[in-house]
Design brief:
- It is a single chain.
- With about 375 residues, the protein is α+β, with helices and mostly antiparallel strands.
- The protein has helices at about 5-15, 25-30, 80-95, 110-120, 135, 145-155, 185-190, 195-205, 215-230, 235-250, 295-310, 330-335, 355-370; strands at about 35-40, 45-55, 60-70, 95-100, 105-110, 140, 160, 175-180, 210, 255-260, 265-275, 275-285, 315-320, 340-345, 350-355.
- The strands form two sheets. Strands 6-5-14-8-13-12-11-10-9 form a nine-stranded mixed β-sheet. The chain has a six-stranded mixed β-sheet with strand order 1-2-3-4-15-7, with helices on both faces.
- A hairpin with a 2-residue loop joins β1 (about 35-40) and β2 (about 45-55).
- The two termini are about 40 Å apart.
């Protein structure tokens, strides 16, 4: 049933970890979508919550795709139909032609050493190819993830996971550094020699990292990075909205880190934290002065702050599952694996068609647009 943003936020704040994509503030960030907060009750007690984003269908504005990124926030350990059936009934009545959700449930984990072995082995080209060699690689399947996957499939949900792990939604594969019970020295020891050297190099060169407010400076560097690395940047207004919405919920929810060398901005990053989970969400770097390692300095500052805040996880966000040295995407996992930590595969995004004809038309439209 619908709940107020205040009740939704109170529920989020009572949890150890909730995706920032499932906070009421995220609905205010995604201004091009409609949004609502929903709750599940056991008697008078709120026991589950969800942020639902409603995306209108082109030329069919009375129907929407109901999207729950990183959610819903429910107990995934039991019979999930008890949670998802009332969700489907409510959203169909609201005009949704389909539901897309992404359970915050992992299916596999690979530690840094095993990822490195996979990259070095010419015969292993994907993380998923290592699942058949559990005893050899140290890959750890998760029984909960397998159970959730089975229940979703049995209930008619359709997997939406692209081959490379990235799609229009959230990545299925991420790279995370476990922090619970660790000190700064522990985390440093988990990093490879190159990462530790780059952190020391930044300090030796006099790189200073501050938590700042200059979003315009960040955005200018971000646009420069986008031109260099050939991706489409978001407008400055998007980041202004993001900071305003998230800080209205919690002044410590989002931070901007600025790395300067002799007065010149050389790197900038954005950290988001909800409870005990911290995410590296955006980064930018100057093409000049890359040798002073401003990006490494920003990462280390964010990791230290996540540790100081008592976080369990520092999340470097998406990777692709490729381990193929010839694949240009492999550089992403090579960079992140140097931090130590682990590669994680989640259940991924799943669709439940509520109005099959409209769903098929929408799916065809999206395939044509992406093609």
């Amino acid at each position: 049933m619908p709940i107020s943003a205040a009740d939704h936020l109170a529920f989020v704040q009572a949890q150890r970890s909730v995706s920032f994509l499932q906070t009421p503030a995220w609905g205010r960030v995604k201004t091009e979508w409609g949004s609502e907060s929903l709750g599940w009750y056991d008697g008078r007690q709120l026991v589950g919550a969800a942020l639902v984003l409603h995306r209108p269908v082109p030329r069919l504005d009375r129907f929407t795709l109901a999207y729950l990124p990183g959610g819903p926030v429910i107990d995934w350990t039991g019979e999930i139909a008890d949670w998802l059936a009332p969700l489907a009934a409510h959203l169909r009545a609201r005009g949704a032609f389909a539901i897309r959700l992404a359970p915050p449930v992992r299916t596999h984990t690979w530690d840094a050493a095993q990822v490195k072995e996979g990259i070095a082995d010419a015969g292993t080209t994907r993380l998923t190819a290592m699942t058949a060699m559990t005893a050899m690689t140290g890959e750890r399947p998760d029984a909960l993830g397998a159970g959730v996957t089975r229940q979703l499939r049995d209930a008619g949900w359709l997997p939406r996971n692209p081959e490379n792990g990235f799609g229009a939604g959230q990545p299925q594969f991420t790279y995370e550094i476990p922090l619970a019970g660790k000190t700064e020295d522990d985390v440093l020891r988990g990093m490879n020699q190159l990462w530790r050297r780059n952190i020391r190099k930044a300090a030796k060169e006099g790189v200073e990292v501050t938590v700042g407010e200059d979003l315009k400076a960040f955005h200018d560097l971000y646009v420069h990075t986008a031109e260099r690395d050939r991706f489409t940047p978001r407008p400055l207004r998007y980041f202004e909205t993001m900071f305003a919405a998230m800080r209205a919920e919690d002044p410590e929810r989002i931070r901007l880190y600025l790395a300067r060398h002799r007065g010149h901005l050389v790197a900038a990053t954005i950290l988001v934290r909800v409870g005990a989970h911290a995410w590296y969400t955006y980064g930018a770097s100057s093409t000049e002065k890359r040798e002073v390692r401003g990006s490494n300095a920003c990462q280390w500052a964010m990791i230290r702050d996540a540790l100081a805040a008592g976080c369990d996880v520092y999340d470097l966000r998406g990777i692709t599952p490729t381990l193929d040295a010839a694949d240009p995407h492999v550089g992403l996992i090579q960079f992140k694996v140097g931090t130590g930590g682990q590669a994680v595969r989640y259940v991924g995004e799943w669709d439940l068609p509520l109005r099959p004809m409209v769903y098929r038309a929408f799916d065809l439209y999206m395939k044509r647009r992406s093609g």
